[in-house]
Design a protein that fits this description.
The chain is built from 7 helices and no strands. The protein is mainly α.
């Protein structure tokens, strides 16, 4: 097995770890739009576990552009660098901010006198708005990084074009969903095409890897 195929398997495993951790984070936090402060406040232990899974997801997915950069830069250094910035740095930052947001919700619940309904409602409003904004920004940053990845994969045939095309189209839908999310909540079903594509891609990378004609690292 050459170095490129080892990288491909590592990427596939990292995608699976990140996806499973992301799903579990939603299971434990019950948080999908950033507006469910009441649930977060009422489920302290579950949310703490959810925060841990968010961080696992963040760091596992952040490693993908890091380990693929030595390969991708040989084909398109600008896209490879942009992918590292958006998926490695900015997306990770938004996940960390999400974890901090959830922790602040927990702290506000512990420090606020629940008998003071006006105070709690004010904090609830501010945190809900912040959570929704973070969620929308994360979606946009994620999709921009994904578009860079799938364009590179498609342009240089690093994966079968049907798989790269699927990723491109699903990333565009994800981006539009993120933009519309700034103006109101949208159905999370619109995000499923990309989630499914990433799992198919992860399995493909583990079993078959990148195309055999890849330049060596």
């Amino acid at each position: 097995m050459n170095a490129n195929q080892k990288v491909a398997r590592s990427v596939g495993v990292l995608y699976i770890i990140g996806t499973i951790a992301g799903i579990l984070s939603v299971v434990f936090t019950g948080w999908t739009t950033g507006s469910d402060v009441a649930y977060v406040s009422a489920s302290e232990n579950e949310v703490k576990v959810g925060i841990l899974f968010i961080l696992i997801m963040a760091f596992s997915l952040a490693m993908v552009p890091v380990v693929t950069y030595p390969i991708f830069r040989k084909y398109h250094e600008t896209l490879a660098t942009g992918y590292v910035i958006f998926r490695g740095a900015l997306e990770t930052f938004t996940y960390i901010i999400t974890a901090i947001w959830l922790w602040l919700v927990l702290l506000s619940n512990m420090s606020t006198d629940v008998s003071s309904s006006d105070t709690f409602q004010h904090i609830d409003y501010l945190l809900s708005g912040a959570g929704e904004l973070i969620h929308s920004i994360t979606m946009v940053v994620f999709s921009l990084g994904a578009l860079m990845l799938y364009y590179l994969l498609y342009q240089f045939k690093l994966l079968p074009r049907w798989l790269s095309s699927w990723g491109l189209l699903a990333s565009m839908l994800y981006l539009l969903t993120g933009i519309f999310d700034f103006f109101g909540s949208v159905s999370t079903l619109l995000l499923m095409p990309l989630a499914l594509q990433e799992m198919v891609m992860a399995v493909w990378l583990i079993i078959k890897g990148f195309n055999r004609e890849l330049k060596e690292i």
